[in-house]
Amino acid sequence: MAITGLPEAVMTSITLNGNPHEIQSPLTLTGLLESLGLGGKPVVIELDEQAVFPRDYEKTEVGSGARIEIVTLAAGG
Fold first, then answer.
1. What are the phi and psi torsion angles at 48 (to 5°)?
2. pLDDT of 10-40, one tens digit each?
3. What share of the chain is helix, strand, coil (3-state, %, to 5)?
4. Contact criterion met (CB below 8 Å) for 35 and 11
């Protein structure tokens, strides 16, 4: 039985770091990071050639055809 009022998940295509990638939509950037095993890790995200602040990941939806670049940050010397 479906829960009313909640959007149904639909598979959609995005470009992730230059490669085609299938996701379940609707999905936020936070959800995408979690699905990739990067939740809580230091990353920089660019969505359709625009940098996104980490404080906005939770409220930024990933739409069909989105172009996303994710760069993980690592300390070293």
1. 50, 50
2. 899 999 999 999 999 899 999 999 999 999 9
3. 15, 40, 45
4. no
Residue 32, domain extent: 10-72
How many CB atoms neighbour CB 12 within 10 A?
17
- What is the rounded average pLDDT of the residues 37-51? 96
Look at residue 36 in the predicted model and tell me its pLDDT.
96
In a domain, 5, yes or no: no
Instruction: Quote the CA–CA distance of 37 and 76 in Å, as a whole number.
Output: 21
CATH of the domain at 30: 3.10.20.30
The stretch 62-67 carries a mean pLDDT of 96
Rounded-to-integer distance, Cα 33 and Cα 31, Å: 5
Alpha carbon distances (Å) from 4 to 7, 8, 45, 56, 63: 8, 9, 32, 27, 22
- SS3 state at 34: helix
